[in-house]
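Quick one, T. Sequence first:
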Amino acid sequence: MITVLSAVVVLGVLIFVHELGHFLVAKRAGVGVTTFSLGFGPKLLGFTKGGTEYRLSAIPLGGFVRMVGEHSDEELAPEDVPIAFTHKPVGWRLAIVAAGPVANLIFAVLVYYLIIAGWGLPTLTARVGGVAPGEPAAVAGVMKDDLVVAVGDRPVRRWGDMASAILNSGGQPVRLTLLREGREISLTLQPRTVTVKDIFGEEHRVYRVGILSSGEAVIQRVGPLEAARLALEKSYTAGELIVLSVVKLFEGKVALDNLGGPIQIGQAAGQAARMGLVEFLSLMAILSVNLAILNLLPIPALDGGHVFFFVWEAVTRKPVPVALRERAQQVGVALLIMLMGFVIYNDIARLVTGAAQ
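Structure tokens:
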């Protein structure tokens, strides 16, 4: 039950934010909106206000905002021409289409800000939890429970500071200042070059010294401006990873079996909800960035496809021919249906495999 409710909340909120972006900018542009729907298919409930029908539909896998004059071949009454989407300048049409993904990006930043400003930033300390035998740290004399306070002349406040300094050492010796039983000691370590694989299976040469984290964590409190900076940084990092994943997928370096659909999202949402509110909100932020970026892919039927057409129109001063746009739309819809079928198949296959194990 928790999994189902969590999935409904996550998908509902993200779809609502996305469609609200389209809706608000359309209203600001003076475009008439006839329907604002959460979900597809048969209407479950709804009401009409200000000429717009607000509805909740049966299939919770998306939503839509239906605008007056949304299609170029749509017949319009004379009084509807001033509020028709197709009769607005290309700049407004571009803004309306892009507003959905932009709303998801803004939502992710706001959620990250709420987490960081409200709960603080969980941070690993630079306390040594152990030393790998025979590694540079063991050879130099680093001991369990030492606290790293500096690398060279640079102070260390968290585990990431030390790890980053070693990774960026270029293989040159590094001097660690440690706090051991109340006194400071200084040791010089010679990093070792190792080859590791990233999440995409690609190999990289990095530098290691064999220090293991203690897992000790503290909650770092930050001010409003720092929280805003960190929220933007986390959103950017999430987006960068998603873009890289898409690129690797097209390069064939990420297996299609890794793609997940609504069932996997539901499972992740349920697991995050059981872990706590912070984890649940963090997942929602990541998925919001994911939704924004995937919607901006230049695929007809997605927002990114429409953005591409309107950018083309803005640059060439000529709209894309209707026949070409409709044909591209049909191909895009077919691709999306195939992709949805594939990811649902993957989800079911994971369930069956998991059940078999």
